[in-house]
Specification:
Blueprint lengths: L4 H23 L5 H29 L14 H11 L4 H8 L3 H9 L7 H10 L9 E7 L1 H9 L10 E7 L1
Antiparallel strand pairs: 1-2
Length: 171
């Protein structure tokens, strides 16, 4: 995910490099068609990924994304970044609105908000005008360790008891 203008410019530059590499690859001669196809497919796949990231960033910057949705709380960090971008704010501008150093927002975003306090998280979401009160319900599943593994995948730690609760957000 592109989080700022610097990353945006770097990503566009990398895309140009990949296009040049693809052109060179196509102009060359390769005795092994399987290796050639793998190289071309790999370059095309990387280019498609970068194009998607660039398109998403440009859409957010140009306010072409009217609604941002998440299906679990694990997606909240990306939602905060996307919301900031769609407001047209830099990390520094968001930090100013929150009366904190710009480096703090940079740190939060680079760490995907892992070390942010709950109070700061709420303050940031309010500043971004995010409505986080729409979580319809949370279900607790009690089952053997398979659900505990699933819980870890969505960022929750299961208890060490025999019946391990796993939280899953529904919405």
């Amino acid at each position: 995910m592109i989080k700022n203008e610097k990353q945006y410019k770097i990503t566009k530059s990398k895309l140009k490099d990949l296009k040049r590499s693809l052109k060179v690859c196509k102009e060359g001669t390769f005795p092994d068609k399987i290796i050639y196809k793998a190289m071309v497919d790999s370059l095309k796949s990387l280019m498609a990924d970068l194009k998607n990231e660039i398109q998403e960033y440009e859409n957010l910057k140009n306010k072409k994304v009217p609604t941002l949705k998440i299906s679990s709380l694990a997606e909240l960090p990306d939602l905060l970044v996307r919301s900031r971008i769609s407001h047209g704010w830099t990390q520094k501008q968001l930090a100013e609105k929150l009366d904190m150093p710009a480096q703090q927002i940079q740190r939060y975003e680079s760490e995907s908000y892992r070390r942010v306090s709950f109070e700061a998280l709420l303050n940031i979401s309010r500043t971004l005008n995010l409505d986080l009160d729409k979580v319809s319900r949370v279900r607790i599943f009690y089952s053997p360790s398979s659900k505990a593994k699933q819980a870890k995948k969505i960022g929750k730690k299961a208890s060490s008891r025999k019946l391990k609760p796993a939280l899953k957000t529904l919405g």
